[in-house]
Amino acid sequence: MRTKSTNILPALFTYGFVGLMAFLSVFPFIWMVLGATNASIDIIKGKMLPGEALATNVANFFTLVNVPLVFWNSAKVTILATVLTLAVSSLAGYGFEIFRSRQRERLYSAMLLTLMIPFAALMIPLFIMMGKAGLINTHIAVVLPTIGSAFVVFYFRQSTKAFPSELRDAAKVDGLKEWQIFLYIYVPVMRSTYAAAFIIVFMTAWNNYLWPLIVLQSNETKTITLVISSLASAYYPDYGVVMVGTILATLPTLAVFFFMQRQFVQGMLGSVK
Amino acid sequence: MSELQLTGVRKAYGGLEVIKGVDLDIKTGEFVVFVGPSGCGKSTLLRMIAGLEEITSGDLIIDDIRVNDVDPSKRGIAMVFQSYALYPHMTVRENMGFALRFAGVPKPEIEKRVKEAANILELEPLLDRKPKQLSGGQRQRVAIGRAIVRHPKIFLFDEPLSNLDAELRVHMRIEIARLHKQLAATIIYVTHDQVEAMTLADKIVVLRSGVVEQVGSPLELYDDPANLFVAGFIGSPKMNFLKGVIEIGGDGRAYARLPDHGNEKITVDPKGLKEGMPVTIGIRPEHFKEDGSASLDLAIDMLEHLGGETFAYARHGRGDLIVIETKNGRGLKSGDRIAARFDPACALVFDEGGKRMR
Ligand SMILES: Nc1ncnc2c1ncn2[C@@H]1O[C@H](COP(=O)(O)OP(=O)(O)O)[C@@H](O)[C@H]1O
Ligand SMILES: [Mg+2]
């Protein structure tokens, strides 16, 4: 009896803690979904039950927002950013790991140091640069600063450590040039690393807010995050409509994560076995 | 007909020289084995031949052409790696055809060659599997198949059997020997296992710290080692080494006095020997014979009965263990005192620097 009770206590504590954490992370989602079915006034009052205003909220959202255009803008920015970031940063991570030299190690350390600079400090110089390049209010300006991602380079360099060097040797004997080794051997062998990086980069790009807010100024170029935030900061914000927008904005990242969950976990565990 | 020549080949990593001037001549169809302890530079030398490692100085000549700066894929070589290095995302068929596809060989020809190689290696039922779905021995065969389809002039193997279990290793060793006959190919094979070297090679190259110690057929190296290192490295169990001091008799005959064996004297060939010279006497375990004229007074420490023969590990007093191979050792017990007799003509003499005196 005694030993049993001493065993149950820590288990209870663990379950309690995990339960609390689960609740804290799921609650905003529940609130978002419930909110989309209620009128703004009920949400402010703190109503936590399903309501009947879903159809009205959806209709209002579609009249207030040019949905196809806004989603097209978001998709364009996200796809461009994701493809370019993966291409450029994986190439860099591979290069840093395979072709080592003292100078490259210095460059790499310097690159990692940039992770410690907060974006707020870069915003103004970046804005001036984009202004000089005549790129203000373009999607290129949104994408450009993100594609050389120190974090993604780091992630690919770490993953490349598990890439067998004898595969490179075999490919060289088989007659492949360096770029072909990268394209035909490295990329397919590392595909779960790419999948994990894809999810991270995709979500970051899709949810990106601060930099697009600064650099995108006309309604024709704005992305979904900007539009939702402008709805929420109106004089009399309609929270029901905001919740509908938030749900729609969450769907793509949810879909990506559900479809790629397995590769994501594999990539995080290391892709070469 | 010489297929491959190395002259004064060196390799340095920064200031560290790991291949210290290798001269070698390999003939068409020869099975050459590089053998030596781990870290002696076998892989480095092989990789230099393959073109995967730059040659710091010296010449590498294949078919009378200097290929130091020729791309690996254009040297007429194919390599089988220790880890097999199969492309994990391709099927066996794709792995084997990959190099040919890149060389622009037409599809039907690729098909034909892959089939041919698969047939030789009994890989047909596995052609559509991925490497992950294969056993170690099967991966090994695919790696060899990938080399065969390219019809190379020279096959390079880097410790290809070291990842296999003992039984499979023996099986694959025979397989490789058979392949050598069947393809009539030139093979350069790296191993640290002297048994593999002895059983496979036409010619063994013994390496130590980046230097070629001796080149010769397996039996040449066994019977006639050039130095203490080769004598100790080739043969299992190892050759016994005894400390000796040379004494020259009045009649000009030379003896080696063995201070660790009660000053037992054995007759040796006097050529090159001087009075008082310290030497090492080498005797192989199987050279102990009951009718020998020299004799060591030993006590048996331990016995290994293999059925057909017995290995007796014995010592004089507290001296080094000496291994004796005998056909009639079943009656021996540990603790027995024996007179281990041998023919002094079988004993090899090495000078203080380890060089063979002959
Ligand atoms: N890239 C390298 N940089 C520095 N030293 C190396 C490098 N590759 C091999 N070596 C050194 O060269 C020597 C020979 O290595 P290797 O040819 O792999 O030996 P083996 O195959 O005979 O075991 C070793 O001492 C090893 O430490
Ligand atoms: Mg090696």
Count the beta strands of chain A.
0
CATH class of the largest domain in chain B: Alpha Beta
Give the terminus-to-terminus CA distance of chain B. 31 Å
Shape of chain B: elongated
CATH class of chain A: Mainly Alpha
Mean pLDDT level of chain A: 91
CATH superfamily of chain A: MetI-like
Low-confidence stretches of chain B: none
Largest sheet of chain B at a glance?
6 strands, mixed
Chain pair sharing the greatest interface: A-B, 18 and 25 residues
Q: Using the CA coordinates, give the radius of gyration of chain B.
A: 25 Å
Quick gist of this model?
The complex is a heterodimer of chains A (273) and B (358). Chain A is mainly α and 273 residues long.
Question: Which features characterize this protein?
Answer:
heterodimer; A: 273 residues; mainly alpha; MetI-like fold; B: 358 residues; alpha+beta; Rossmann fold; OB fold (Dihydrolipoamide Acetyltransferase, E2P); 2 domains; six-stranded mixed β-sheet; five-stranded antiparallel β-sheet; 8 helices; 19 strands; binds adenosine-5'-diphosphate; binds magnesium ion
